[in-house]
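Batch manifest, entry 17 of 40.
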Amino acid sequence: MERTLWDRIQEIYYSALTIGESERPAFIVTECDSDPFVIKEVTSLLNAEKSTGDFLHQPIFELGLRLIDGAAEQSLDQLIGTIIDKRYRIVKKLGRGGIGAVYLAHDLRLHNKPVAVKVLLPESLQAPYLIRRFKQEAEALSRINHPGVVDVITAGELADGKLYIVMQYVEGVTLRSQMAAEGMDFERVASFIRQVGAALHRIHEKGIFHRDLKPENIMLQTFTDGSEFVKLVDFGIAKVQDSLVAPSTINEAPIGTVIYMSPEQLRGEKAGAASDIFSM
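Output type: structure tokens
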């Protein structure tokens, strides 16, 4: 298939994803200029998207970790109400991913200032690779000092061996929650892209590549004057050059969220700044 034709098919496919299913058939026929081949290819992609559900939107490395031990989940919930490092009181769980859970906590030394605490799941402690990834997330964030990237405050280990990272609590919404079927205001989107680009430039300068840039990992903060600021979050699968935690691997496995991954990531090849820019 010619590259230009494939680009056209992808463009129509992604556009169709933003509208209701009942409106898609007419939209596809119009956009495909009634070309039966193009219609078939776009429809096939949409059917695959529907059959996989959220599969394409989940990080690959998390898919194999979705079956969890109920006892382990209960043990993490017991963190609520406890105090970490004699300073951070765990208030409630905000969410969980494939290898860790994130909690809201209050900093008892700073007038109950809210912070986010990410704790490695007990079952993840059985996988040395996941432990390295968790430690590298803290290392990556500690290298970066930019208003468009979430700040790390400290990191450590609980008495039972579970690792944790204390980070800035970002009070806001995800970019995903603001993406509507009818589209978004052009100037607003331009502002977001400009800010994301500036943040990526900074992290790339520090030898860090996010590798999982997607709307869910872009937080938006709104201030009283109505201005909106971007914060990049979740560096859980970031690649860190010259890491002090673990050396970079030569042969990389595909890692990221499929629908936003660059071609080189999908092939398991070396990911770099261009990979993040492709995702953006």
